[in-house]
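The methods section describes the discrete structure representation at length, but only in general terms. An entry of this sort, consisting of the sequence and the corresponding backbone structure tokens, reads as follows.
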Amino acid sequence: MKFKTIVWMAVAFVFAACDIKDDVPYPIVYGQITEFEVEGQCGADGSAGASAVIDKSSRTVTLYVSDTVNISSLKITKIGLSGTTYNPDVDYKDSPIVYPDSSACINYALFPKTAFSNVEKGRDTRVNFTHEVKFVVRTYQDYVWTVKVHQVLGREIEVENQIGQAVIDPYLCNAIVYVSREQSLKKLKVKKFTLGGTHGAVTPDPTTYETYDFYNLRRFIVRTGWGKIEQWSVLVCHTDEVVETTAKVLPRNLNATVSGTKPNGVTPKIEYRDASTTEWRTLPATEVKTTATTYTATIGGLRPSTKYVCRVTAGDVQLEQQEFATVSLQQLPNASFDDWSTDASNSKLYCPWTTGATSFWDTGNRGATTVGNSNSVPTEDTSTGSGRAAFLESKWIVIKFAAGNIFTGTYLKTDGTNGVLGFGRPFTAFPSKLSFDYKYVSKPIDKFDESLAHLKGKPDSCSVYIALWHVEDNEYEEFQGEKYPLIIRTKPGKDQNLFSPDDPRVIAYGQFTKGSTVSNWTSETITLDYKNTELAPTHILVVASSSKYGDFFTGGVGSTLVVDNMKLIYE
């Protein structure tokens, strides 16, 4: 009897030692601000219809407002929240509470403490955003968020023979403008003088004069768009500096951006042609955006994988012609998941590539097959009726929950009971969307980590996301001599390293989740949101998982995601 007990204890110890965490990590943040809108909201360039930038990893909200609103008494029009509040006497409810910094509120007692999209009568959502403001989102814990509001006043000074941009200090209310030695300070033609913003006013307004005397320091009364009155000092000085005309071309798949510096008062002429022809085309001047000494423009209607020539003329200066090549329309290898093989030393280990081929995709199967079978396998149930698809299943493997998954990268090793993954593959194109076909069976969440116990019984969700990185030479991580944009370490603790879409190297990101069963083949499209349009991609990441929170041992046993026919779309 004792011998049997010892044997069972030994077996349990072996299983525990082989407790392999194979799942692809998915970032979790509780008590989240999901939406945030205020009066006068705009983009960083003043454009209308822009959304707040919400960084879930650092719990920050950044947004911009126009010069028509008072930032010291700014009305919040919408707050969206997610999270779970626990009441031991009832079920869990998705009803987080928000508490703004009372010292920043105009009337804290009347500020609504829950999410809202319309301000009810009798409520007061005005907040002083002249400095960043803390908001506490309370679920069963408190999560502190920081909201930063930047006002786009569009302050600009442009004068004749100006050198460089005007130095404008909104805090001290002064400005310095530099002009060439040949320019008279007593008779200066002023083209722009918007110290009060686009909707503000300046008295006296020097743009209404033929010329204006700036021989000495001049003072102006400035009224902002919301009525604030300031006194400004403006100094104009001579300088020997000369602004040279420059041009930089950033080619993409179907267009290219040309930008650089130019003399004041000049709109550059941008011409381009197919390198195989001699016929030049001129970009309309209306499509060239300029400031006093800079410009930017986009040349559209180009063909991929084609060489072009561009030249820029600013005044009497014509720059040397530049040759550039648009990028090819790259697709993901094995994107329909037709190619699979089994490992020569482990017949239970399915790999998403053919025998002897170079891998582009990988799965968590290497961890799962230590104590069980692969849970990411090929299936002949496809959206096209031919080939194969990826069948990803959430399973209970001996003593652990594991979600099926597939990702662009390499499963590097197992660290104790946790996976180490190399995320990303080289990629240089500029796709706008990712399309794919899928079916999903959502099971109730019956396996969970203690920190996610509030999800018990709720429908499981699948997840598909795509990211483009721009990684500099000194930003890679190495594993056994191989370089990766990101090495995932799922082991909890100080060395844990997970993917975040808010990584500053991520220049574009898109995500899809589904929390209900989709029995028939369905097409879905993820739109990539480019947060940086001045850098070219170096790597791509695509991840699909049958349980969104599988990396935290949380999901529904039997949830299955079948993925087929992935395709990058270029527009």
Notes: Helices lie at 2-17, 365-368.
